[in-house]
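Side project, low priority. Logging it here so it doesn't get lost.
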Amino acid sequence: MSLGTTAPSTSIPVTVPDDRPAPDKPAPPKKKARWGRRLLWGAGGSVAGVLALWTAIHEIPGFGPALADGARSLFGPSAVAWAEDVAYGVADDINQARFKDDAPKAYWEAPTAAVEPSPVASASPSAAPEEPPPPAFEPPHPTVASAADGKWIPMDDATGGPPAMYKSLVHPDPKRSFAVVALVAIDRKRIDLHLVAGKTEPSSQAVPMDKRPGIVPEPDLAVLVAAFNGGFKAIHGHWGMMLDGQTYVAPRDTGCTIALMKDDSVRVGTWKGMQPTEGDMRWFRQTPPCLVEGGATHPALEVEYAKGWGATVSGDTVIRRSAIGVDATGRFLLFGLGDALTAQSLARAMKTAGARDAAQLDVNYAYPRFLVYERGPEGAPPKAKSAIIPDIKFRPAEYVGEPALRDFFYLTRKKTES
């Protein structure tokens, strides 16, 4: 009996643990939790990486262009253009939601009173008489205009002479109060326009690098007023350029052409119409088709998201863009630069400001710029002191101490006024 009673009692502790669930059975949920955390960390890392990349592109000079060029060599220009369009499209959607109730963006305040005559011009009878500024203009979309839109303000060019440049603002897009173009009206009676080839752009087999200093020539440094960006790289459209009798890139019939003529006038127009005057040109630089010609915007720009004004990005991409134009009198050269622009809105801005003819120059965050210079110490070259809009990254020695890789324009006071 004792054996019969002890057998079950000894068998119970042996068999019961085997029938119970194993203690490590809940492991799968923990595994899922670990994978979930890894996914969250990965997503967070991706977002942080994208933000870090976006910051680097916008804050480190030269990083964005180098990254884009490297990506194009690996994946081709179409893939990079698609990626840029998507990225800028997302940024535009975010900005439209973020700023929809904000006041229009403005880079400076509207003038509070009429501009007084320059003290230099009135101090001496021999001083050059002060010329009137360009006529004020009505903003194209009052609902998104700032108080500074359409009003021209004299710019200080550090030469001590009467005003030769004026700035204004225009908001050309009724859907985007943050899309604003800074305009510069340049008085050709007082200012000369020059073109310089970059060390590497536009690329050309005809002119070696050692013949391309990429810098403002020393004789012009004493009268340098400002400098601004040129056009696209040669690979992006193969738009023509001729300078000092050398053709860097052959002109295209459809290219909008900025030309300095031998009579010192500046002309902007489609090459097919300008070609008969080629022998009268000192230099020319081409861009995609004219934004404005003969006072009319390009027919393709009737569509808001028009394509055709870029090779690496489309005309419909909402990005930083720049343009150059001339007014109907030929007296004022007009430069425009702004953010969150389509080709259509840039054309509208230039036409509103008074451009009879206008060409788009370079685009994208890193390239467009308009820098104003100040005199350096005795014997030292001038230095870039400011940009037309506050978030342009630049170095004081740009165009004067550091050779530029890409072509650019610069402005000097006419020698008779210096």
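Brief comment: Residues 192 and 257 are 18 Å apart (CA to CA).
Revisit when time allows.
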